[in-house]
Design goal:
This protein is an alpha/beta fold. Helix content is about 45%, strand content about 15%.
C-alpha cells in the first residue's frame, strides 16, 4: 500500500472529520437501485482514461471548485465523489461543502477498492 506523507494525511483526516463517507458497497447498491445522484471522479485525467466507474463524470480535483457550478448547478443535488483511494475525494468533498453543496459524500476506498471488489469498470 502506498504510504502518504504525514502532513497530507493530517489534512485528509481534518477533512474527513467534516464530511460524509460512503462505502463502495453502498455506492454499488445505489447504482443497482437506480438512485439519483452524480458520481464524480476527481482523479487525474490520465487515471480516468485508464478506467473509471460506469456513468461517472470526470471533474479533476485540481479544477472541481472552479468547474462544479457549471456541471452540477443545484447545491441540493446528491453528489458522490471518488478518487484512487478516498483521500483526494475527501478533500474535494470538504471544499464542495464549503461552497454550499449540501449532500456530498466521499467513497471510502476509491476506484482501487471498486476494482478490487470486482465491480464493473469502463475503459478509456
Amino acid at each position: 500500500m502506498k504510504r502518504h506523507a504525514e502532513r497530507f494525511l493530517n489534512i485528509v483526516d481534518d477533512a474527513k472529520s467534516r464530511i460524509n463517507e460512503i462505502t463502495i458497497d453502498e455506492v454499488k447498491a445505489k447504482v443497482e437501485r437506480g438512485d439519483t445522484f452524480s458520481l464524480v471522479d476527481v482523479r487525474e485525467e490520465s487515471e480516468w482514461k485508464k478506467g473509471h466507474i460506469p456513468n461517472a463524470i470526470y471533474i479533476g480535483k485540481g479544477v472541481i471548485e472552479r468547474d462544479i457550478e457549471k456541471i452540477i448547478t443545484n447545491t441540493e443535488s446528491k453528489i458522490i465523489l471518488y478518487c484512487g483511494g478516498g483521500f483526494r475525494s475527501a478533500l474535494a468533498a470538504d471544499s464542495l461543502q464549503k461552497m454550499g453543496y449540501l449532500d456530498v459524500s466521499s467513497m471510502d476506498g476509491g476506484y482501487g477498492g471498486w476494482v478490487k471488489a470486482g465491480y464493473p469498470v469502463k475503459e478509456g
